[in-house]
Amino acid sequence: MNKTKTFTIPTKAGTDVIDITSEVSKIVSDSKIKSGIACVFVAGSTASISTIEFEPNAVKDLKRALDKIAPENGDYEHHKTWGDDNGCAHVRACFMGPSRSFPFEDKKLILGTWQQIVLLDFDTKNRERKIIVQIVGK
Asked: How many domains in the chain?
C-alpha cells in the first residue's frame, strides 16, 4: 500500500533551514498505513531535505560548513548560463540531496531523540517549496 501527500513551505533567501518534522509526522499518522517508510522529497534543484538537531547553534554550524564547501559569493560558471546568481545554491543542494527516507511504526516516525527533519533552501530569493511525502508500507 502507498500514499502520497504534498505540502508547501515559504522560505527566505539564503540558506533557510526549516523544521518540517511535525508536518511529516502528521502525514504519517493520518495515513492508513501502520508501518513502513516515508520518503520526503523537495521539488527543485536548489533545496534539500536532511536531518539535524534543530537548535540555533547547530544550524549556524551547518551554515558555516556549507559556506566553506560552496561559498555564497563564489565564482560559479552556472551564473554565465542563465545570468542568475544562485550557483552556490545548486552546488549545496547537489551535495545535500533532494530526499531522505524515514522508517515509521505504529504510525510514528522513528527518529533519534534530537533528530528533526529539515528543509534546506539555498536559493538567493524567497521561494515557495513543494514537499512530497510518499509513504510505502502496510
From this structure: 1
